[in-house]
Each structure stands twice: as structure tokens, then as C-alpha cells.
Amino acid sequence: xxxxxxxxARAEEVTAxxxxxxxLRAWQGGDADAAERLLPLVVGExxxxxxxxxxxxxxxxxxxxxxxxxxxxxxxxxxxxxxxxRSHFFAVAARxxxxxxxxxxxxxxxxxxxxxxxxxxxxxxxxxxxxxEALVALDDALALLAGVDPIKARVVEYRFFAGLTGExxxxxxxxxxxxxxxxxxxxxxWLYRELSTGADA
Length: 201
What we know:
The protein is mainly alpha-helical. It is 73% helix and 5% strand. It has helices at residues 5-28, 32-54, 65-78, 86-109, 133-148, 150-162, 166-173, 177-200; strands at 116-120, 126-130.
């Protein structure tokens, strides 16, 4: 019996996910070469995350997805992390990508002012902020939120920067999907108010 292409693709995806988890554990266990072997398995997903983070940026942005991935991955390799799962890796990778983008935005913040960027939190909630100030403002707001409620800040980071689903976030944070959804709704409303205030100012 010939398996359907969808079934074969799913089997390959499960196998790749298992290999990613195995390499993460090897890396955590001190195998320095595991990080190098891991890159080809995750680079495609990291590029998707990077590309989604750059959507809406001005044409000719000096950071391209490949450069963003390279810098973020170098930062990941330098840090020590208790890797749990593939989803956990991509959640931490999203944080690394965020840091690269924000550091870059802060460097050019004083020198250049771009056109308006809409920060969208689903269901029609948008805030218009100048660019690159938008990313800096979002980062500052997330830092404030993290001081009040770290889990809500991480949920936003996972969804906004990594594109993780509620189920994936639930697995990373050891929460139920319903709890993740509540955190997301409350955090989104909080950030909307915070960014709206900043935009009006």
C-alpha cells in the first residue's frame, strides 16, 4: 500500500522534530558539534520566523532574514539553556531574533525616522507607531509587562515573534491551551493600551 503524500510528509516532520530534540539534548549535554548539526534542521523555520518579523519593515531594511537568523543563532549558541523540546527551542530563538531586531532598531533610532508601522494584535486591534520606533516601543512595553506578569510577556513573545500556536506555547510553559488563551487576551489588551498611549503622546 502506497502512503498518501500527506502521511509521508507528516512522518518526515515527526522524524525531524525528534532529531531536533535529540540534538538539543546532546548540545545541552556538552556536545559542541550538536549545535552545528542542528542548524540545517532548524534554519528553514528560523528564516520563516525572521521573515515574519520583518514583514512591514521599510524597503531596503539593512537586516535581511538570513543575516537576522545568523546573528540570532550565534547568540543562541553562546548561551546556556535547559532545552526541553523543539517548541522550546523556537520560543527561545524568537527571543533571540527579537533582541537582534530591537538592538538594530535602537542603533538607528536617533538617526532615522521611517513611515508608520502598524503593530497588530489580531481581531482588528492595531496601533500605528513611527518606524523604527515601533519595535523599540513594543520591546519597551513587553519589558514593562514582563515586570508585571512575566508569563503574559512570554506568551506575546512566542506568538508575535515566533508564531507559536496556543498548543505549542502551552507545551513550552506547561499550561493548558485555555490558560494560554486567557494570558494572550489579557496581554494583548494591556499592550494595546500601553502602545496607544505611547502613540498618542
